[in-house]
């Protein structure tokens, strides 16, 4: 990053950085690495080819000089589009394509990427929690393999890093119902999908049972009324224009609110929830473990709520809140009271790069 007030831009430092990357790649080669993946998500942006093409050519010309090392140029989150032609000409040994978000590149990539380069096909979505429709993705894979004249020239992969998915469905067994589990795929399960998809080209009979089970699960999700409710769709289709219009203009509603609430000109309140203290967390943990009865837990919450309201009244707030001491996560708690939502037990994803 440039120093505060400096006029330089990151690309101004490319020449200084390249020798460092060459040294790093050399160390990896010396340590026995055969392939190194180099991520270039910038290729999914609309780039000015007159600016970026010569910079990429210079950079990868230098990186390709490391003996005994193969480079996999990796882009994701969208198609390469206009960048495909010149990216395909770079001196690398393979190119990874996000064929979930960038499926429109398939035909052009099969032609533009030279036959001596491996294509890594990102066919399993790394950014969602649903099982892939393997039959649909297998058709894409066969098309690519046929165009490349053999499976050896095509790798199967996830569309992007799996850090965007929760880790594993294993902790959810016994917590989520079997139907829901059959629709979901977290990082471990996505790896298994990659394996099945690759095997479906090389040894289809060996994974026939997995493919049939996947097809049944995909059909289940498409047809389930837990996903699509005809009655709800009919109600939505039956709404007329009046359903989207207020029954009274704002000025009239405002007068009614003022009369009903009788608040001062600048009322004071809080944002809603009060701190989840150590005592609140302890009581909740004891309740979940069965060490505290529901009656005792409810009485504890009532007492905390009473103290919260008394404090607000004492300090003179105009609009009081009850503190939300019974609430867990601010999304989970409300979602659990709504139809159409299920909640995992350990479905954590990476947050801010340092926690889950």
Supply database-style keywords.
single chain, 5-stranded parallel β-sheet, extended, alpha/beta
Kindly describe this structure:
The protein is of the alpha/beta class and 356 residues long. Helix content is 44%, strand content 8%. It contains 13 helices and five strands. The protein has helices at 14-30, 49-63, 84-88, 106-112, 134-148, 178-183, 187-202, 208-223, 230-237, 250-261, 278-289, 294-315, 332-335; strands spanning 35-39, 70-74, 94-98, 118-124, 154-158. A five-stranded parallel β-sheet has the order 1-2-3-4-5. Helix 3 (84-88) links the parallel strand 2 (70-74) and strand 3. Helix 4 runs parallel beside helix 5 (134-148). The radius of gyration is 28 Å and the shape is extended.
Give the helices and strands, then pairings.
Elements: H1 14-30, E1 35-39, H2 49-63, E2 70-74, H3 84-88, E3 94-98, H4 106-112, E4 118-124, H5 134-148, E5 154-158, H6 178-183, H7 187-202, H8 208-223, H9 230-237, H10 250-261, H11 278-289, H12 294-315, H13 332-335
Parallel strand pairs: 1-2, 2-3, 3-4, 4-5
Average pLDDT rating: 93
Distance between the first and last residues' Cα: 27 Å
Structural class: alpha/beta
Share of residues in strands? 5-15%
Q: Tally the helices.
A: 13
Calculate Rg over CA atoms. Answer: 28 Å
| Total beta-strand segments | 5
| Strand numbers in spatial order across the main sheet | 1-2-3-4-5
Series of secondary-structure elements, N-terminal to C-terminal: HEHEHEHEHEHHHHHHHH
Q: Level of helix content?
A: 40-55%
How many strands, what sense, and barrel or not for the largest sheet? 5 strands, parallel
Taking pLDDT < 50 over at least 5 consecutive residues as the criterion, the unreliable ranges are none
Q: What is the general shape? A: extended
């Amino acid at each position: 990053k440039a120093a505060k007030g400096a006029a330089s831009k990151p690309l101004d430092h490319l020449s200084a950085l390249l020798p460092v990357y060459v040294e790093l790649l050399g160390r990896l080669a010396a340590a026995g690495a055969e392939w190194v993946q180099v991520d270039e998500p910038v290729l999914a942006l609309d780039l000015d080819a007159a600016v970026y093409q010569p910079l990429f050519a210079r950079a990868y010309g230098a990186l390709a000089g490391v003996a005994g090392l193969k480079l996999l140029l990796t882009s994701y989150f969208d198609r390469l589009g206009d960048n495909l032609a010149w990216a395909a000409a770079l001196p690398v040994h393979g190119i990874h394509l996000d064929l979930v978000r960038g499926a429109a590149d398939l035909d052009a990539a099969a032609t533009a990427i030279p036959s001596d380069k491996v294509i890594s096909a990102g066919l399993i979505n790394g950014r969602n929690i649903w099982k892939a429709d393997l039959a649909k993705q297998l058709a894409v894979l066969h098309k690519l393999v046929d165009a490349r004249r053999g499976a050896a020239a095509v790798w199967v992969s996830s569309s992007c890093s799996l850090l965007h998915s929760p880790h594993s469905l294993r902790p959810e067994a016994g917590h989520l119902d079997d139907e829901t589990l059959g629709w979901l795929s977290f990082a471990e399960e996505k790896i298994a999908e990659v394996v099945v998809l690759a095997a479906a080209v090389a040894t289809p009979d060996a994974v026939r049972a997995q493919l049939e089970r996947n097809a049944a699960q995909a059909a289940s999700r498409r047809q389930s009324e837990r996903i699509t409710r005809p009655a709800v769709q009919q109600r939505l289709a039956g709404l007329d224009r009046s359903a989207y219009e207020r029954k009274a203009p704002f000025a009239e509603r405002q007068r009614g609110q003022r009369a009903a609430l009788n608040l001062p000109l600048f009322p004071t309140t809080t944002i809603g929830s009060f701190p989840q203290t150590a005592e609140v967390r302890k009581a909740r943990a004891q309740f979940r473990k069965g060490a505290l009865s529901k009656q005792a837990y409810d009485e504890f919450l009532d007492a905390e709520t009473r103290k919260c309201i008394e404090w607000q009244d004492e300090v003179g707030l105009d609009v009081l809140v009850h503190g939300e001491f019974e609430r867990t996560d601010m999304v989970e708690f409300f979602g659990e009271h709504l139809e159409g939502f299920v909640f995992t037990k350990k479905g954590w994803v990476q947050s801010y790069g340092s926690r889950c």
